[in-house]
Amino acid sequence: MNITAFTTDLHIAGHDLPGISVTLTSSPRPPRPPFRRLDIDINTVIELLALVEGGAASAGAVRDMLEAVVDEVEEADEEDRREDEALRQLRSTPVPKAPARTPQYDTRSVYLVSSEAEPKIVKIGVSKDVPGRLKSLQSGSGSPLTVRWTSTGGGLLESRLHDHFATRALGGEWFDFTDVAQPVAMIAKAARRLLKNATVVEVPT
User: Fold this and answer.
1) Nearest of 41, 2, 34 to residue 20 by alpha carbon
2) Where is the composition biased (Acidic residues) (predicted)?
3) How many C-beta atoms lie closer than 10 Å to residue 156's C-beta?
4) Same domain assignment for residues 62 and 142
5) Which of 28, 139, 164, 174 keeps 20 to 30 A from 145, CA to CA?
6) Are 61 and 142 within one domain?
7) Could you read off the pLDDT of 110-168 as tens digits, one per residue?
8) Domain stop point among 92, 112, 138
9) Is residue 99 part of a domain?
10) End-to-end CA distance of the chain, in Å?
11) Of 193, 186, 180, 101, nearest to 153 (Cα)?
12) Which structural domain range is residue 160 located in?
């Protein structure tokens, strides 16, 4: 059931009836049988009857005028309904999420280094020249150092491995794996998981 109240100006047979209060009641859709009823104030009805009685306008002309008013109002109502439906559909349409960015790892090598004396105290570092880096580290170590494992992945992989094993951090990129039977295998597995579906890019020299 649709009920629309509005004010309009009526024009018939050279007569103007301004500012007429009108209420349209209609049922344009099932399950109710369609009908339309136009209610106007009593003074307007009296004026219209007087025009018909005086011969200034025919009953058919009055009916056609009122039906035209109804058609105009219903057309406006239907346009409002279409706009409301379009707005509801727009609000219910999910906003597509931006595609997840693929992590980009660089081609520098992530390495694991530990000493012969404490093989499970491991340094997780990154370098473009692992042998040169090992030589530099060895100069400050009292025990021979060995490279246990390397992988591409650069600074991003190094940082993520540091975060992943943060509870084992000793400081200075050194980590304690003394409670692990095979620390290299554990770190390599974590690196493979982090590198899965990643893009590797060259680092500018």
Assistant:
1) 41
2) 73-82
3) 19
4) no
5) 164
6) no
7) 999 999 999 999 999 999 999 999 999 998 888 899 999 999 888 889 999 999 999 99
8) 92
9) no
10) 75
11) 193
12) 104-200
